[in-house]
Amino acid sequence: MKTSKKSMIILFSILAVIGIAVGGCSMHQYQKKQEMIAIATSDEAKKVYEEYLKKEDPKALTEEGIIKSYEIDKEKLSYNPIGGLMVRLFLNGKKDLRMNFNLIDNGDGTYSTAYYGYTGDLNRILEEGKND
Predict the structure, then answer these.
(1) Per-residue pLDDT tens for 21-59?
(2) Of 98, 99, 100, 96, the residue nearest 80 (C-alpha)
């Protein structure tokens, strides 16, 4: 009877340690995600997005522009192993019109991008707009 009781105590202790470890990892991932969202939605990051949107469409974010609005995809944020934060934007409320950025921290509170890219659908729409 005593060994059975000891075994149960050991088993519950092991399960408690595993539970605490899993909870700690989950909390760490949650904090990282919140940090990425804060960076991606910051005013300084938005300046970078808007600068590049206006390079592709000089009238972007106006009624006359091809690109009228953008939304940050908070589910797909991730850190690039080489450096920077990978950010995806949905344009005009459409998930097939996307622009991707590698947001780099300049160390002075501002951001820049190492590159940006966009989907073929967006490229087609931008090209059609330039030809009009």
Answers:
(1) 777 777 767 888 899 999 999 999 999 999 999 999 999
(2) 100
